[in-house]
Amino acid sequence: MRAPDTAPRARVGDVLLSVEDVSLSFGGVKAISGVSFDIRQGEIRAIIGPNGAGKTSMLNVINGFYHPQQGRITFKGRTRAKMRPYEAAYGGIARTFQNVALFRGMSALDNIMAGRTLKMNVNFFWQLLRYGPAMREEVEHRRVVEEIIDFLKIQEIRRTPVGRLPYGLQKRVELGRALAMQPELLLLDEPMAGMNLEEKEDMSRFILDVNEYYGTTIALIEHDMGVVMDLSDRVVVLDHGIKIADGTPDEVKRDQAVIDAYLGVAH
Amino acid sequence: MKVRQVIMGVACAGLVATAIYASKAQAADDIYVPLFTYRTGPYANSGIPIANGMHDYLTMLNERDGGIGGVKLNVEECETGYDTKKGVECWESVKSKNPTVVNPFSTGITLQLIPKASVDKIPILSMAYGLSAAAVGKDFPWVFNPPATYWDGLSMIIKYIGEKEGGLAKLKGKTIGYIFLDAGYGREPIPLLEQLAKDYGFNVKLYPVAGKEMQDQSSQWLSVRRDRPNWMVMWGWGAMNPTAVKRASENGYPMDHFIGVWWSGSDDDARGGGKAAKGYLALNFSGLGSNYPAIQDIKKYVVDKGKSQVEKDKFADTFYNRGVYNTVLVAEAIRNAQKLTGKKVVVGEDVRRGLETLHITEARWKELGFPGFAGPLTGISCADHSGHQGAYMQQWDGDKWVKVSNLIEPMKDKVEPLLQDAAKEYVDKATGWPKRTEACDKAM
Amino acid sequence: MASTVAARADTFPKLLMANAREFGARPAMRHKDLGIWQTWTWAETAEIVRAYAVGLSRLGLKRGETVAIVGANRPKLYWSILAVQALGAVPVPVYADAVADELAFVLKHADVRFAAVEDQEQVDKIQSVQDRLARLELMFYDEARGLRDYDHSRLRPIDEIIAAGRDALAADAKLGEWLDGEIAATKGSDPSIILYTSGTTGQSKGVVLSGERSIAAATDTVRFDHLNEHDVALAYLPLAWVGDHYLNFAQGLVAGFCMACPENADTATADLREIGPSFYFAPPRTLEALLTRVMIRMEDAGALKRRMFHYFIGVARQYGERILNGEKVPLSGRILYAIGNLLVYGPLKNVLGFSRVRVAYTAGEAIGPDLFAFYRSIGLNLKQLYGQTEAFLYVTCQPDGAIYSDTVGPAAPHVDIRIADNGEVLFRSPGMFTGYFKDEAKTAEVMTPDGYVKTGDAGFFDDKTGQLKIIDRAKDVGKLKDGTLFAPKYIENKLKFFPNIREAVAYGDGRDFVTVMLNIDLTAVGSWAERNNVAYASYQELAGHPLVYDMLEKNVAEVNKALAADKMMAGAQVKRFLVLHKELDADDGEVTRTQKVRRGFVAERYAPLITALYDGSHEADISTEVTFEDGRKGVISARVKIRDMKTEPVPAPMEKAA
Amino acid sequence: MFYREAGQFKTSYASDQAIFPILQDRIGIAVILVAAFSLPLYANDFILNAVMIPFLIFALASIGLNLLTGYTGQLSLGTGAFMGVGAYACYKLTSIWPDVNIIVWVICSGFFAAGVGAIFGLPSLRIKGFYLAIATLAAQFFLEWCFIRIAWLYNYNISGAIEVPQRTVLGVIVTGPRATSETRYIVVLAIVVAMTWIASNLMHGRIGRTWMAVRDMDIAAELMGIRLLPTKLMAFAVSSFYCGVAGALMVFLWYGGAEPAVFNINQSFTILFMIIIGGLGSLLGAYLGAALIYILPIVLRFVPEWLGIPIHAATVEHITFMIVGVLIVFFLIVEPAGLARLWSIGKQKLRVWPFPY
Amino acid sequence: MDILYSIFIDPFVQMAQAPDLFVQTLWDGLVGGMLYALIALGFVLIFKASGVFNFAQGIMVVFAALTLVGLHDAGVPAFLALLITIAVMFALAFTVERVVLRPLVNQPDIILFMATFGITYFLIGFGEYVFGGDPKVMPVEDFGLEKGAYNIKMLGGLVSLQKLDIVAVIVASAMVAGLGVFFSKTRIGRALRAVADSHSAALSVGISLEQIWVIVWFAAGLVALVTGIFWGARSDVSFALEVIALKALPVLILGGFTSIPGAIAGGLIIGVGEKLAEFYWGPLVGGGTDAWFAYVIALVFLLFRPQGLFGEKIIERI
To answer: How many domains is chain C partitioned into structurally?
Structure first.
């Protein structure tokens, strides 16, 4: 697929987001303690670690769902102690979820259209009439969404309620919904969990395509080490809420702490 | 899969067919008397005996006399459940069948129906309930509320209290508690109560009981205990009454200082309190017991033949007789209408005239088989649709109601101006309220 | 009417310009893309094609050069054909599913300088054989996806070429005139297109067709079927196949009707339903698969609905065709049919997308009488035609009202047919080809001195109907050892009419008796297995299941019965059969890309089985190499059982054929 | 079976996004509309007054609740009270400015309900599900209490009830006892149809999607930049607007007057039944639910008479209760997603007819 | 200032001036609260074990009491009537499980909630059809319960404790304690608790889900019967009683849907709270606050503790 050389490519730019000394705890239980790392423009950044390492919590902190007790997050040059979810979304952070969090009552098309909400702004009055500007906006965004549908090759299931789709397709629709936000930073929480080999290959392809075609910066959590090593430019390793390694896949692979904490128990 | 579609289809077809059927008018060769009753719902305890009384008396007329003036009465109950929605629905369903008169038996329903009466030409007989102002015949030609309005009732109670205290003047400084169902019905007497309080110098304490709290009432009665009013007056209905009687006795309130309006004086209301309720007072304008020839006829022609739904031990109890009273008025109105029009089969417009000429003297009561059953009803005229007749006080002796006073006449002078004001206000607010065009018949 | 235009124009680009003037605002082409049917009118199409042509000329495309067109049915590829033709160059369509080797052969043989391709997949395929294609300079692609990182020195997006052409046209008014001149300069007798035949044996041949002849042929059939600019056709058959080029492209341009391209192969059925074509073509194979699907889906319906369905299908069988043919039918029949039409036929045609079909054709191979009757009985005006690439499709076609399942109709308008002494059908037609590209020898081989083309098919004119009846490839018609006539295709077709049998290969030439190898139809037999609780884990297991054999035995017995009734064929009843453990596959070369069996190749490949069929053994082992979809190879081995058949007595003793 | 969709293809997103993309549906809707608007020509007063007008008003209220509960997933038991707010607002408005077109006031009264609804929607940010439902009960009982206690609301009428004054629009009497049932029916129908159309517009656009997003997965919605509180409050407001208008219509064009008891908890429950039986998250469901819950008992009441069986009115009522109870359970078992789902299954079957799927 | 005085000072002055009334109010609140808690207990039992929000609990109270009184009125001896009523409640639980719950298993909460509305409708119609809509007097004496009151002189006044109320409080407490023991000590009880956590856990104890449902509905039926007896004794037995079920809802909010002690605590808070509010502050707004006060208490609680008094803090995970 890709040349074995996974050194940062020219497409990778400046720091897009940095996390500094972030700590988070729930009722005394530490989920993350003093973690710092950064994500550069255009790269694919993996966050790995054994179960309970605080990976998902980290994503939740980044897009403002959890508010860390300590630490700072700098996104696009703006530093703040805590971020509100919608601020993160406005700022250009989109994500997918570990357990598919689609809007189950809606069709695939509507799910992805919902991802365009932020970009839509026709006022309530026209919405009532569904005419004029409202319809024009609807059509304009439908076009964008159709391109995403085309991109993800999910034309046949456009009108299917997502609840009825197989898991792999649901994951794809969820990616589509995140893409519809045209994010600068895309957070993927275990995008390949529960997939078979073929589906994983498809999903890897899509992730690379997204990164290439749209130039989106991607941060992903993944358990499949093979996938992580193939896809990512840099990897940060968490264990029990503490960062134990950070570097290119090769560096991480050789890191003794990582081997002890993670690879040692890998199956 | 198939089943679902079949069911849907059948349901839809049924809906349509029935709706069409329901809308067909009936051919009229009898006198149609619809009875709006409620044997279900939270107020069924009051509704059932009344419904039985009304139904049984009219049935008795059919059985004994072959109807009225030789024409059979078509008696049909429409279940309202004391629900305004269903009341209006009942109205719509009976109105095409030439009803003679409608007895809504709910203040709420009456209020909804009043505007419709003149349009649909169906008189409403809201016997001692409904809109008090409707007594003003000038403005409400189609609505009748004999023998007395709530305001009349309140004035009678105050008069009775005055009597017991040794003259109305003695009321000064006394406290009268008013416990009422927190709805239009219970709130209606308040203006008069407040005015009387001003006039006679007594204090008033209000204890509203929300419809959904009427089975509890403990806070209200605690307050009563704190406020220690000299007298308690109750405007209760349905399940509120027995609960109030129980709470009063539990809280040691002297029962003989606790007076209910005529809708709070059924046997069931007091029975729950048992012995402890002894002494509880209530207004009444219909007879007690079954010692009247006509009531015996009902027993003979209807109850014993199994044509009634009444339970044996509840036959001829207070509210049963109240229902009978109501239908005596209906029957008399129909008779009057027949006389006035010369028609056998009369309809709403005719019966309105019959109601306006209602005139039941003591002798007439006797003639009808009800000697001493009720006071004379002689006050009704085109101007006065209530009559402001008196009522008597009854007292619970632990087992049954006993009549304990003569007829108490209402304070007409206090009530009448309020009625006129209220009627005027009502008509003013209801823009486009029709002026009375109906002619006035002479009383017979 | 389109015919007047057609009469004047003798090349497709000329026709296009005429249509743009005449039907400017009517839709010329639709394509289900990004969720809706993107539509281009004739005027828009003409504008795009002109811009495209200018763009191509700026890339150096010259008159007489060839351009490969590789991909599925997409507007940009059709425009490529027209734009290439506008410059007097020759388009060479290639099957999109052709493997790299086939592709390399065609591209090399046709000397293509440019290739217009659909997407990354085709680009990859061509690049993998680029070292063999010295002349190929540049590829134009439709879909950019995945090609971003490719070396663009030899790649261009089609959009860019069109845009460049458009800019050039806008900048220079003279360019437009120049282009008009180029279009006008192309003569009707110049090659219009080269269609490579799939060829049942050996390498493909490039059939050269001229514009003039193509248009003449299409004009005849457009008139014959009364097609006009209000018709719609779904272009879902391979772009490189003569059928698509004739039925959709040529007829579309001549009649001015709208050609609709499906979103992709998976959605073709849904797209068919949406677009609701009025002119429809499907090979018997497709129709059969469709019918099988209909029947299987109906099996899952509730009992009541199923009974109703079968009842009305019965009614249709009884009256439907007669009503369609305008014959006399009793009133009760008409009423029943009308009810059936409301409850079954109408909705059925609707869900299949046939509601608006006025004319439907089927061709390519023999069609089962039941199958044919089914579609006609529900009111689909399905007809047969017989033709081949060399004739630019039409040799015969059935006129309305004279439709038979076992004949292919009288000669199409302006076509002459002659039956050679050996039974081979020869024809001369307005659309016939000008020759095989760069292969004079082959051309000479198939042409008779008096200008007739040899079809290679054996057939005769039916006495009763006067229509042509095709029995087999002329060279495949053989004889058993006892001299009985053996037409393998004829037997195979009879077998294939059973829904359970997907493919049959008959052997018998020069042997003692006839044997067949069968392929089960997985959909039909699978569904049967499910209903009858027959457990199976794989195709192979199902194919070898004794109960399946029992079922197929009955089918073969029926065929024997039918054969016995025909005096020419009675001696060629099937004596033994087996069920193959794998599906015959084009990737393995067992069938052609158009799904025709390569009998000889199969015999070679399954030689042990053939041996077993004739040596009386009841089992045989076989292992074959197979190619998987992704190009990997593997080996499948199996033990295949063989069944003996009883044959029907031959009705009357007959003279041995000479 | 009646759907013939072959050849109905969409060449633009506008037509693809249409509310009724299928021709046969458009024809069906047109037929229903024509039938509905011409109903007064052949139906009597009973059908109009006691069946159709209430049905339409309930359908409107159900749409209102469905916008909140079905589309946004916020369970509310305050519908009756919100209807009351509309009714009282309309009464006050037309009392204060009697000359303004009553239909304008009916619509405006929705805004008051919307405001009150939004206030009582505030807890929805923190509480969900049944907990929220019970919080809305507080609104229900508190508002009901206000209707009784605040005499200003009913213009200090002694009866404690509101009486609808006569109002004319363009010279036609629309409200009050002298308004003909035909007029009232047409006005109600027009308003209900228009508001259904608007609701449908909303639900097919961005707003509908954000609401459903909040309903289906509020966390994901929030992380996509949908602000929960404004979204939920807007749903409460729009829903209450519909309920308010329904309440105003109920009093002004159906009852002709009302006491507070009309807007009691039972009203709230009734409308909740309607949307659950009809189908959560479906406008059609609101109509079907209203038809089943409101019209079915009426029909049942007529059945014995129809069959000529002499049964006491009360017994009929008892049996009606039992049958309605059984039917509710039955329909839930047959199709928990409601009548609307039943219809869409049926429609799907008709579309693929004669195939079963 | 007057307003402030009457809101913030006067009620407390009153309390101090008439401590006996204050105690009486507390007692009445306690009794009322206990009875609310009993209804809430019925909800909790069913919700805990099956996740069904049983709206029919109110009508079950009426139905149980009506059956008892109806039988008694028909001449059946009191204790036999009680036994038969218990049997009827069991039959009801069994039927509900068979006819309603089993076909609706695994449906969303709201659907089951709606189904209990269907049950409510049916029981109203059925109950009225069989027993009639007229109110019936609960023959408390026949069940060995005494009427009357203990009047205790204290705090310069009189506090009156109804004997029935005392019994009600004792029985209610006993039932709570009994249920507590049942849940923690018995095999079935533990299974019930397990089922609240996971359905398969219960199956591993060897009790089928269906049995569990029958048991909890039966238990709720018994609670309903006890509730019905005491509420029936306080007023009459009639269908108007059904509305008091609504009072259990704020109790549930306070206590949490699954906590038995929560139901008790919630009931007491609501009972005492609304009595105090109506008694001391009600007159300021014209009284009648008990119609909504309970819900407002619940609402305020919810805003600060969305998970209820005894619920666990919810951490949202994604």
So the answer is: 4
